[in-house]
Amino acid sequence: MTTTLIVGASGTVGSELATRLAAAGHTVRRATSRAPTAPDQVQFDLVTHQGLKHAFEGVDRAFLLAPPGHVNQNELLGPLIEQARVQGLDKVVLMSAMGANADPSAPLRQAELQLEASGVPFNVIRPNWFMQNFHTFWLAGIRDAATIFLPTGSAKGSFIDARDIAAVAAELLSSHTHDNADFDLTGARALDHDEVAAILSKAAGRTIRYQDIPPEAMLQGLLGAGLPQSYAEFLNLILGYFKAGYAERTTDAVQRITGRAPIAFERYAEDHRAHWQV
Asked: ∠ at Cα 117 (113, 118), nearest 5°?
């Protein structure tokens, strides 16, 4: 029986992945920065790396990601990748982000390259923008003003449901079929935010619209929400890439790895409509 360490196990992808692996009979070890409250949890601080060796003890495979709020992803992930190399793990799946491999100096790309050079069987998955952002990060504007406020113009994005990301990660962690390959993960089609607003409106039973805003307004909003300056600037930067059209591309990776089509935005909207109803 293999033991799989999940970093970010309380997050959107990690929690779904933990459920999937446990249901499939895997022994799951969920990393948490807080004192464990369940037998399958282990305390590990991804920022300070306190508890790193203990978290990896007896682990065969690992799912790694860098938490939101940080731009030094290579510094956070590097020691984990090195620990995986030292222990000779059977498999590591790293969740990066679509477009990270466009710049060799980008922190996430540096982490990818370290994993590729480690000698550990690996996969890198690079999801596009999450559908789940609309009931988390972008929820306040939708709830309070029935408006999606973003600086993305009329550009389209092939949004992906986090449940599909977890499904892909579970498959990759369960076999060696796709070892030493990277995958860009997207939904089946690209939508602009007017189309997104129309779909959310139908699911919520009220009119939700999209408003394009200046990048400066977005930055001030992010800072006002309490995000660190560096991370707020990073989000604004990648939203600029969205506006430039870099998020529109689609891939067939979800279909190839899981054997089924990606979850449609309409299904996501129906499944989470309570968040936008008033």
From this structure: 115
pLDDT band at 1 (very low <50, low <70, confident <90, very high): confident
pTM of the model: 0.97
What is the secondary structure of the chain as a DSSP string? --EEEETTTTSHHHHHHHHHHHHTT-EEEEEESSPP-STTEEE--TTT-TTHHHHHTT-SEEEE-PPTT-S-HHHHHHHHHHHHHHHT-SEEEEE--TTGGG-TTSHHHHHHHHHHTS-S-EEEEEE-SBGGGGGTTTHHHHHHHSEEEES-TT-EE--B-HHHHHHHHHHHHT-STTTTEEEEE--SS-EEHHHHHHHHHHHHTS--EEEE--HHHHHHHHHHTT--HHHHHHHHHHHHHHHTTTT----SHHHHHHSSPPPPHHHHHHHTGGGT--
CB 165 within 8 A of CB 9: no
pLDDT in tens, 49-103: 999 999 999 999 999 999 888 999 999 999 999 999 999 999 999 999 999 999 9
| The pLDDT value given to residue 278 | 77
Q: What does the alpha-carbon distance between residue 36 and residue 44 come to, in Å, rounded to a whole number?
A: 10
